[in-house]
Structure formats: structure tokens, C-alpha cells
Amino acid sequence: MVMFDIPRLPRFAVVAGCALVYMGFAWGLVSSGYLLVSTELYLSLVASWLGGMLVLSWPLPASDVASTMRRVFFRLLWFNLGGVAVAVLVPNELRFLMLVVPLFGVLYAALRLNGDRVLFIAAATWLSYVASTSALLWLGSVEMRFEVLAGLAFSFLLAGMVYFAGDLEALRRRAESRQQYLEKSVEELSGVAMRDELTGVFNRRYILEALKRHKALADRDRLEFTVCYCDMDHFKRVNDQLGHAAGDRALVQFAELAVSLVRSMDYVARLGGEEFLLVLVGANEKVAERVCERLCDKTRELVLEGRHAVVQRLSVSCGVARYRLGESTDDLLQRADRALYEAKRAGRDRVVTAGD
């Protein structure tokens, strides 16, 4: 029986094919008269074993990892129990050849299951061998001395497989640990690549790529979006009077405020310095204006204290531009930038929307 995945072949088809091959082997033993028990008993055991394997290998809808591991456990357990039981009934010349397969089933279990389940399968395999040979001895079909020697040999091989299975499980766990470490490292590096180090919002590179993606969606599916170009007013004064540490706190507080005012589907990015960009997905100018007006109101409530007990209140100017179908992202940002310039020229601390 094949217990591993073969590319491009469904698992069930592989199991069914192997079952047919084994049935042919069993029929050959029956036809040759090599069996140690009656034909009816042997064929019944083989049919029950192979039928159970087909049932346990039947493809089911995708489930959680725990359910999948339970199915693997019961499949391997049944495979080893039945494999040992039918192997004991074949002629002595073939018996150990057939018993090799359940031994490798223990190794396969180490690749998929935890140590406790591997030991359980190994113990059940050994008990199946003892029970099967005991039944043969009771029926008087075999010689006691040979079965004792064969049992010791099988026990030794099984113990060796359990030992190697332990090493294999340790290697698997080490590989999984390294895989988790690599995935975590990649995730952290991805976060660094797309996030501004100071504020934690998206950085310039990422937001420009996001704008290109949303432009493509808008051109294809008419999914509108609007950008808000925001610049904190008189930020140089903040750095000069309160110090750069206070300036950094101002940027962090403003970024947190902006994130709190938009939806999870929207974007907040720091373009550089005190400039930020909001991308509001599915929003028109009116919605964007209201968001920016709330942003202006909340920014006025921010108060910074710096060196020499100097206190500074903050404000922000915003330029709003809705994406026009077919225009480039550079043109969109330039329109938002011009609206921001108008807000600055009109006295700052206000929102201006780009005209048509």
C-alpha cells in the first residue's frame, strides 16, 4: 500500500490500485495452496483490511489541521494492524518481505504525527503481530521454535524503526522550527519594506504601488477612490522650538490619529517629513472632505510640550483629489498637491478639493 502523495494522481486512485495489486497477490497464494490458514479466513481478512483502507482514503472536503491529522493517524493505524495480520498468514519465505511494509509505516508516521502517536502505532503493530502468531500457534499451523525466533527478529526490527522514527521526528520538528523562523523573518522583513519606521504607517514606496493597483481596479471595475494629501503646518517651528524628539512625537501622534479616522480598507502613508497621504477606497470628494475636516479638528486638539516648557499646538492642511478614469497616478497626486498648496496659501489648517 502506498501511503505518500504521488504528484498528479489522487490519493484514493493510488490506494485503490495498490489494493487491486494486493488482491492479485492474495489470489495467487490461494491458487498455489501456500496459505497457513483456510482460504475463506485469509480472503476475509484481506478484504476487510483493503476495504477499510479504501474507506479511510476516501477524499473528504478540506478540514482543519487537527481533523486531517486524526485521519492520518487512523489510516496508518489500520494499515499497520491489517498489514501485519495478513502478512503473518503468508508462507514463511514471503512473510518478512511483507512485514517490511508496516515497518516503513512507522517511519512514515514519524513524518506526519507526533511522538506519542508514533509510539502508539508501533505498539499496536507489535501487538497485532503477537496476536496473529498466537492464533496460528493455537491452530497448530506453525512451529513454536520458529515463531519465537521470528517474533524476536520482528521485535528487533520494529524497535529499530521506532528509534529511527524518533530521529526522523526530531529532524522534522527542527525543520518545522526553522520554517517558522524563516516565515516570521520574511513577515518582519515585509513589514519593514512596507512600513514607515517612525510612525508605523505605510511608506512612500508601498503607497505608490497601492495607488497603481487601485488605478487598475478603478479603470476596470469603475471602483472610485480619493486621495488626501496632508501636510502638518509650521512643522519646522515644532522642531526648532520643541526639539526633534518632540517633532517625532508629533508625527507619531498624527499618524495614529489619521489611522483612527479611516476604515480598515483605507490607507494611511507617510510620504516623507511631515507629509502624509490618505487613500480612501470607494469614496468620493464629499466623503474625503469630511474625513479631512475631522482630521483637522482632531489635530488642533493635539498639544506638544518640549524643552524649556514650551507648548505648541498642531494643525494640518489637506488637499483632496478624486481619481479620474484613465489619468496617471502622478497626475492624481499633482492635483492633490496643488489643492494642498491652495490650502496653505489660503491660511493653512483647512481642506481644499481639487477642481475639475
List the defining traits of the structure above.
356 residues; alpha+beta; Alpha-Beta Plaits; 2 domains; five-stranded mixed sheet; two-stranded antiparallel ribbon; 11 helices; 7 strands; 10% strand
What does this structure look like?
With 356 residues, the chain is an alpha+beta fold. It has 2 domains: 11-188; 204-353, Reverse transcriptase/Diguanylate cyclase domain (Alpha-Beta Plaits, 2-Layer Sandwich), CATH 3.30.70. It has helices at residues 11-32, 39-56, 65-88, 92-112, 115-139, 144-194, 204-221, 235-242, 244-261, 285-300, 329-345, and strands spanning 225-232, 267-272, 275-281, 303-305, 311-313, 316-322, 351-353. Strands 2-3-1-6-7 form a 5-stranded mixed sheet, sandwiched between helices. A two-stranded antiparallel sheet has the order 4-5. The radius of gyration is 36 Å and the shape is elongated. The two termini are 72 Å apart. Strand 2 and strand 3 form a beta hairpin. It has 11 helices and 7 strands.
Describe the protein's topology.
Layout: H1 11-32, H2 39-56, H3 65-88, H4 92-112, H5 115-139, H6 144-194, H7 204-221, E1 225-232, H8 235-242, H9 244-261, E2 267-272, E3 275-281, H10 285-300, E4 303-305, E5 311-313, E6 316-322, H11 329-345, E7 351-353
Parallel strand pairs: 6-7
Antiparallel strand pairs: 1-3, 1-6, 2-3, 4-5
